[in-house]
Amino acid sequence: MGPDGYEITAATNGGRQVLRLRRYGEVVADCFSVEELRRFVDLADLCEVVTLPFGMARRRQEAVR
User: Domain residues for 45?
Assistant: First the structure.
């Protein structure tokens, strides 16, 4: 995820793997290389979004009881 609502995901287009660039959920481009993607967004500004399983340890403890 990057500033200004940019998000990059892996996808396929015409049977080829692409880097799908979205901005606020709307598809901006399907890029066939990182070099092509760089034309749209500064890669240094991107960060990985990770969903953390908050509360999972507590739920496991409750299930054991």
Answer: 3-64
